[in-house]
Specification:
The complex is a heterodimer of chains A (247) and B (499). With 247 residues, chain A is α/β, with parallel strands linked by helices. Chain A is 39% helix and 29% strand. A 6-stranded mixed beta sheet of chain A has the order 6-7-8-3-9-10, sandwiched between helices. In chain A, strands 2-1-4-5 form a 4-stranded antiparallel beta sheet, with helices on one face. In chain A, α3 packs parallel to α5. Chain A is globular and about 50 Å long. Chain B is built from 20 helices and 4 strands. The relative contact order of chain B is 0.11. Classes of the chains: A alpha/beta (247), B mainly alpha (499). Chains A and B meet through α2, β6 and α3 of A and α1 and α13 of B.
Chain lengths: 247, 499
């Protein structure tokens, strides 16, 4: 299988100069293949979001390298952004536009032609059960509806890599279920999925491999089975144990 | 830079901000309505104020006998001018047509006075005919009508009370001084007190031998008025009394001149004929010249304000900016799209305001004091040059507002940063207000001040080419700097990702 995402010794330092220097990510390496779900697990402030943002080119790494679908995140950001779909728990929508307009907009930004955009929108609307509110303004939608629109926006251009930053945070059980199903389906479609979470249930149900992030470093990196073997069957206990020993 | 991406972003941002009521209000509605509303409101307010003052019945304290003397004086005047009135009536209406001539006289006179004081709308009836034919009357006839109006107003719209009827008791407050040499009741403190407490507006003293004195040598009768000029209605009484006594005095002088076979020039040695070549339109254009740059700067700023905040800090607040940064377009394209929308909003607001102002003045609503239909004329060259300054100014304002708004983490924070900026633009533009500041070449080197001074001159039709080129050059430099600064901010991840 091809390795679609490769991160090598990624490092991010904020501040410096007169400002307080903060090392947010300190030498993180991992890879993720097509048809694989990779979980980034860690407490709040561990560096998960910073890592995902570096991989998706929003932040420039201070050190290390990363490639997505063979493109370097620093020198070839445009190609990287073409290859990923990014979704986070608090991704917003343009409230004064309708889901259809939002999807069209991002389709155009991805350089898709009008016919293909329309085709994809109706396909995704069917799949995610959104046909009823495609023409309503986004600020009139429920949280669950909005998240579905966001999912559609993420996969509209059919990217090989999906980067999901705590995609279920703030969602109710039903909406969170939609996301979990979506992650599973994406794996079946052969996508490379990286998602961050601190919910152990999601990890055990979804992840093929995982990396534990703590204070900017990665004390564990490997398969879910390897994790269980090394640290015991109770994931939560194991997780807390790792955090305590690496602190 | 990718033009297709910029076009996509610009189109979407436009759609987005145009669905925002605040943006629509500041970009379109306010610029269009500001001037007509101010003009209508202002004109109406002034007319109403004048009308109310006109219609007010004032109270004056006077001895009954003395009051009769004042009436007798007015009657004397009426009798002397009967024939002239007949001529005026004929000129205006082609005869009396069997109507109540006395009532006609009165209405006419009232209209003449109202016409002079700007309270025209409160008097109806003969007013229409009067306005239409006013210019056909000779100057003497116009004066006759106005005098009669003033005399009538004094007699009709005044309530007379005797001194025994005064009720106010108490003591006078500070700042009031009763002169020592006043005759009769006027020297009494209670009269001054009644004026102060607004029971009456004034008090009069007329000598009982008034008519005899006018025949004697030195042909002068003293009349005393006690009033308080710090009280508006008291001052109004004094003005009415002044109008009345001046009208009567004019008549007395005419009589004396006639009796002594003297011509009017005897008491009026100089006849000044001042010819003002400035029309009302020109005066307005000169005033607008000072105001216009200021208004244009304000409306550029107002137009840019909401789109700029909405498309930067607003996007951060709603968590949509990150998604946009994750799409395969460069940050410069994003900045360019957002800038274009802000810039177009600024220009739209300024242009709509200018057009609305032009229509307000040329299509009907006249500013106070204007007597002719206004005809503001801009030469095409002046318009083109003004536009050549407005475009970079709008671009500069849009770039600065956008860049500063981007620093905010939330709409509110951005608002705190951007709001003080208006002084940066408005204070230099207000310099053109200063009436005595001449447009000298060294001012061309002060950014923004030069633009407003130059726009003022262009409005007046003056072309200062050296000044223009220096101003345009410095403005373009400044605008370039603003654009560069804003694009630099858009490349900073610490600014974009501030949250």
């Amino acid at each position: 299988m091809t390795e679609l995402v490769i991160a090598r010794e990624l490092r991010k330092v904020y501040g410096g100069g007169r400002k307080q220097r903060t090392v947010a990510v300190d030498g993180i390496s991992f890879t993720c293949r097509a048809g694989e779900i990779y979980g980034l697990i860690g407490p709040n402030g561990a560096g998960k979001t910073t890592t995902l943002r570096m991989i998706s080119t929003v932040l420039a790494p201070t050190g290390g390298t990363a490639t997505v679908a063979g493109h370097d995140v620093v020198t070839d950001g445009h190609r990287v952004r073409e290859s990923i779909g990014f979704l986070s728990g608090n991704t917003g929508l343009y409230g004064r536009l309708t889901p259809e307009e939002v999807l069209k907009y991002f389709g155009q930004l991805h350089g898709m032609d009008t016919g293909l955009i329309a085709e994809r929108i109706s396909e995704l609307a069917e799949l995610l059960d959104m046909t009823g509110y495609l023409g309503k303004r986004c600020d009139k939608l429920s949280t669950g509806m909005k998240q579905k629109v966001n999912v559609a926006r993420t996969v509209l251009h059919d990217p090989p890599v999906l980067i999901l930053d705590e995609p279920t945070s703030g969602l109710d059980v039903l909406a969170a279920r939609t996301i979990v199903d979506f992650i599973r389906v994406s794996r079946e479609q052969g996508k490379c999925v990286i998602f961050s979470t601190h919910i152990m249930g999601e990890v055990s149900r979804l992840c093929d491999r995982l990396g534990v992030i703590h204070q900017g470093t990665m004390p564990f990196e490997g398969t879910l089975d390897g994790f269980r073997e090394q640290h015991g069957q109770d994931l939560e206990e194991a997780f807390v144990g790792i955090l305590e020993t690496s602190a | 830079m990718n033009l297709a991406s910029i076009a996509t972003i610009t189109r979407k941002e436009f759609k987005d901000v145009l669905r925002d009521r605040r943006t629509l209000f500041f970009m379109m509605l306010l610029p269009m309505l500001a001037m007509p509303l101010v003009m209508i409101g202002f004109t109406k307010f002034i007319k109403q104020q004048a009308g109310e003052r006109e219609a007010r019945v004032l109270t004056v304290a006077i001895e009954p006998q003395q009051r009769e003397l004042l009436r007798a004086l007015a009657l004397r005047w009426r009798d002397a001018h009967n024939i002239e009135f007949g001529i005026v009536m004929f000129k205006l209406f082609g005869g009396s047509d069997g109507q109540d001539i006395e009532a006609m006289y009165r209405r006419l006179a009232k209209a003449a006075v109202a016409r002079e004081s700007g309270a025209g709308s409160v008097v109806e009836g003969s007013l229409g005919a009067l306005y239409k034919n006013w210019d056909q009357l000779t100057e003497d006839q116009q004066e006759l009508l106005t005098d009669f109006g003033n005399i009538n107003k004094f007699l009709d719209q005044i309530e007379w009370v005797g001194f025994d009827d005064l009720k106010t008791v108490g003591t006078l407050s500070g700042g009031v001084e009763i002169p020592g040499d006043l005759p009769g009741a006027l020297s009494q403190e209670r009269v001054a007190l009644a004026i102060q407490e607004k029971e009456i507006q004034a008090s009069l003293h007329v000598p009982l031998d008034l008519l005899e004195r006018l025949e004697e040598d030195p042909l002068q009768a003293e009349i005393y008025v006690l009033y308080d000029r710090s009280i508006n209605l008291s001052k109004e009484f004094y003005e009415r009394f002044h109008g009345y006594i001046e009208a009567l005095g004019r008549h007395e002088v005419d009589e004396r001149l006639r009796m002594n076979n003297l011509r009017p020039a005897f008491i009026d040695p100089f006849d000044v004929q001042a010819a003002d070549i400035a029309t009302d339109s020109r005066m307005l254009q000169a005033v607008l010249g000072g105001v216009m740059p200021y208004m244009l700067f304000i409306f550029c700023f107002l137009g840019a304000f909401y789109p700029a905040l909405d498309l930067t800090a607003g996007e951060k607040e709603r968590f949509t900016l990150e998604t946009l940064l994750l799409s395969p377009v460069s940050r410069m394209d994003i900045a360019a799209g957002k800038f274009l929308v802000t810039f177009i909003a600024a220009v739209t607001a300024a242009v709509l305001f200018t057009a609305s102002m032009y229509l307000t003045f040329t299509q009907g609503i006249l500013p106070e004091g204007a007597t002719e239909q206004l005809n503001i004329q801009f030469e095409p060259l002046a318009l083109a040059l003004t536009a050549s300054l407005l475009i970079p100014i709008a671009a500069l304002i849009a770039a600065v507002v956008l860049g500063v708004a981007l620093l905010g983490r939330s709409f509110k924070e951005a608002q705190n940063y951007v709001t003080p900026l208006q002084f940066l633009f408005i204070i230099p533009s207000g310099v053109a207000f200063l009436p005595d500041l001449e447009t000298e070449i060294h001012l061309a080197f002060i950014p923004l001040v030069n633009v407003s001074m130059l726009m003022k001159e262009l409005m007046k039709g003056n072309y200062l080419w050296d000044f223009y080129w220096i101003t345009l050059g410095s403005l373009l430099l400044l605008t370039g700097l603003g654009l560069w600064g804003t694009s630099w901010l858009f490349r900073r991840e610490s600014v974009l990702m501030r949250s």
